[in-house]
Design a protein that fits this description.
Length: 748
């Protein structure tokens, strides 16, 4: 009789139990997946019951997996601790100015780089020596955990003093034409806050006004905010403006007119919503992001108070006016989401808080065409034609063809349509996955949903017409750097992918089949960062930045991708690894490491070049330069310091001297031309002389024009004195009747 080995029966029983447990776990996972899918399809009461049932077993954080917390740097930007804050932001003025920077912001990624390896940013002598504001005040971080230590935003700068200003002064017409052209050429196509044809009609009329009326204060506030934004761009381009003319001057006038208690206590009208949206945009282009985020929330709530976020069915309002209000809402939506990405904060616009139609893919000057008017007036046709990429399903049974968009001739409205569609995907994804509530879902569910949104982004890309398509048939980057549509959409697309992937992308080796999904996500994140850097031309070119790229958030994209490359460089094994069948997944091959190194150097060159004209880029360069040196990356000898001319005057283009100023042949050429015609819908005056600059003194432009001494024949547009209309609509726009006791409208 054979002798039974000790433990043989127990071993068999244990193996059986393990098999049974594995089978049960598989079944449970299938049930969980089914319930997760049903969670978004059942009524609210049933969804709440499902959520409460799943919570006890699913609420553990991702970092329970040991491999997910292999290093603090690899998890920099992960959603661990997304619902907690480790510092008191109310402790001093600087911390309050910067405000909270969420886990999915570039600031959080920089701050959480591994301290043990010496790569964490610190307020060392380099920061003290080079990191000064354009006003000469040093950046003074208060510790490693301070947001200010890694902040390149400019919220610590003071607003222009609110001294008494003559709010009714206007610039000379040729100067105003030049600045308006700056705004409508580079900003308005992406933020159509005002209705162009109506605004320009009103604008041209103010140089021939009936003596009994004058522009209303809110219209003038809109006008001055547009001038402030356009002037900001011209100053970045190093254009010489007349003495006494600056964006601060125009902002101060708008501030006196309507950016005051009206924003807090008065009931908003359409013009006030436009003012608030323009103030948000102004703070964003000035890189005062905390202020911009605050005012954006005010603008969104004002718009909701007027129901601009809802589908409008009033048949008395003209189609063009309805579309103008729709575009005003989508401009606010764009601003709110861009700022949310920059700060890592949640947006105040809920995913189900709006029903307004998508903007039609046509420019304003095309509205009169019959097929465009059909789309404006036929709601059924509009709902049939315009659908979100996020909502389209590949197996739809109807006859909907999303590719009809490719047949539309290239225009700015089509570009805006695709940009809003892309922003909508990211808005919904972040709200679902990376909020404190959304992160209660288990890791398998989050990975599956990332896959879903990844496919939706691919679908969005497939809908682009050839003129806007920036990839080839293999989905590799292939764009024309001179195409504004391709550049803007490409930067937003790759930035969206980084935003989606980064919270679940620790760059390391992935062991086991269960981690294959993480390898895929990390690969996609790194590819997006490399592609984003590749969008930038090889040589730093200010003309490209401020005429082609989305310059108001270009630094965000550059730092977003650059930080991903730094995290990859720090955490990856540059020698690669051996693959054990399908059990190990690594993508840190030597060739890829070299590619990342080249991209880091390119980003370094760009930040250095831009630091000469933009203080926020200057701060970003200090941070990034310090990072690369700590990582022992090779940097360009021409971009070694911010001392010399760049430090003494960062906004001076033609400084010479300074031992570290760029003298090499690869120095950026700051040659900005203002040639070409105005856009068709922006024709200001067919007989207008081109603006001649530079001018030496603003006093040369002063005019003694008095509103009471103008030919009354040109005052027909002011037919209803006292009626305050809106630039978005089609109503009259003038405000109060002129009073002898009021100051005269002056020009300066």
């Amino acid at each position: 009789m054979p002798v039974k080995r000790v433990g043989e029966g127990a071993s068999s029983a244990m193996e059986f139990d393990l098999q049974e447990m594995k089978s049960l776990k598989t079944t449970i996972d299938q049930y969980e997946h089914l319930l997760r899918d049903l969670l978004h399809e059942v009524p609210a009461g049933a969804a709440k019951r499902i959520q409460s049932t799943l919570t006890p077993t699913d609420s553990y954080p991702l970092n329970r997996n040991p491999s997910m917390s292999s290093s603090s740097s690899s998890s920099a930007g992960s959603i661990e601790g997304i619902d907690t804050i480790s510092e008191d932001l109310n402790r001093n003025e600087e911390s309050r100015a910067t405000g909270f920077m969420g886990k999915n912001s570039v600031h959080a990624w920089l701050r959480n780089l591994e301290p043990d390896s010496g790569h964490r940013l610190s307020p060392d002598h380099n920061m003290e020596a080079a990191g000064r504001t354009q006003f000469g005040q040093p950046i003074s971080p208060q510790g490693l955990d301070n947001n200010m230590a890694v902040s390149y935003f400019l919220d610590d700068q003071k607003l222009p003093p609110s001294n008494p200003v003559d709010a009714y002064k206007l610039p000379a017409k040729n100067l105003a034409d030049w600045i308006l052209h700056s705004y409508f050429k580079s900003v308005h196509p992406f933020f159509p806050i005002v209705r162009t044809d109506l605004f320009l009609e009103q604008y041209k009329s103010i140089w021939g006004v009936n003596g009994s009326t004058r522009p209303g204060s809110k219209w003038l506030a809109i006008f001055n905010m547009i001038l402030a934004i356009g002037c900001r761009r011209l100053q970045f381009l190093q254009e010489k403006l007349p003495t006494g003319v600056s964006h601060e001057v125009f902002f101060s006038r708008a501030r006196s007119l309507s950016v005051n208690e009206n924003m807090t206590f008065e009931h908003a009208d359409l013009q006030q919503v436009q003012v608030e949206a323009l103030v948000t945009l102004y703070f964003m282009v000035s890189m005062q992001i905390n202020r911009a985020w605050k005012v954006s929330g005010i603008a969104a709530r004002s718009a909701m108070a007027l129901a601009i976020n809802l589908r409008f069915t009033d048949t008395d309002l003209q189609p063009g006016s309805k579309e103008a209000r729709s575009r005003l809402w989508w401009s606010i939506y764009m601003l709110e989401n861009v700022l949310s990405h920059m700060t890592g904060r949640p947006t105040c616009i809920g995913s189900s808080s709006f029903s307004v139609e998508q903007p039609i893919p046509y420019s304003e000057d095309m509205f009169a065409r019959p097929h465009v008017m059909d789309l404006l007036t036929n709601e059924d046709l509009r709902r049939e034609r315009l659908r979100w990429s996020l909502d389209e399903q590949e197996n739809e049974n109807d006859d909907y063809d999303p590719f009809w968009l490719k047949e539309i001739e290239t225009n700015q409205g089509l570009q805006f349509y695709h940009l809003v569609d892309l922003m909508h995907i990211v808005h919904i994804a972040i709200g679902e996955l990376f909020s404190p509530k959304g992160f209660q879902a288990n890791k398998s569910y989050i990975k599956r949903r990332i896959r879903f949104y990844d496919e939706r982004l691919d679908h969005w890309l497939s809908r682009l017409p050839p003129a806007f398509r920036f990839v080839n048939h293999n989905y590799n980057l292939n764009l024309q750097t001179s195409s504004q549509g391709q550049v803007v959409l490409a930067l937003h697309y790759y930035g969206a992918r980084i935003t989606l992937y980064r919270p679940c992308s620790p760059f390391r080796r992935y062991i086991g089949l269960k981690e294959k999904e993480y390898a895929y996500i990390s690969q996609r994140c790194l590819q997006a960062a490399l592609s984003l850097i590749a969008v930038f031309p090889d040589a730093v070119d200010l003309d490209w930045v401020y005429n082609i790229s989305p310059w108001w958030c270009m630094l965000h994209f550059l730092m977003q991708a650059s930080t991903i490359l730094v995290i990859f460089t720090q955490t990856s094994d540059p020698t690669g690894s051996a693959h054990m069948g399908d059990a190990e997944y690594s993508f840190a091959a030597p060739a890829l490491a070299a590619q990342v190194q080249v991209a880091c150097q390119k980003a370094h060159r760009w930040l250095h070049g831009l630091s000469r004209v933009d203080e926020s880029c200057r701060r970003a360069f200090v941070l990034y330069d310090d990072l690369l040196r700590r990582l022992c990356c090779v940097v360009s000898s021409s971009a070694t310091s911010l001392s010399g001319s760049a430090q003494s005057n960062p906004l001076s283009r033609n400084q010479s001297g300074g031992q570290n100023a760029q003298q090499e042949s690869d120095q950026p050429v700051y040659n900005v031309q203002h040639q070409g015609e105005y856009p068709r819908q922006m024709t200001l005056d067919s007989s207008m002389e081109p603006y001649s600059h530079p001018m030496h003194d603003a006093s040369d432009l002063l005019s003694s024009l008095d509103w009471r001494n103008v030919d009354p024949s040109v005052g027909a547009i002011f037919a209803e004195p006292g009626y305050i209309g809106d630039v978005a609509g089609e109503s009259e726009w003038m405000g109060t009747t002129y009073n002898e006791n009021n100051d005269r409208m002056k020009f300066s």
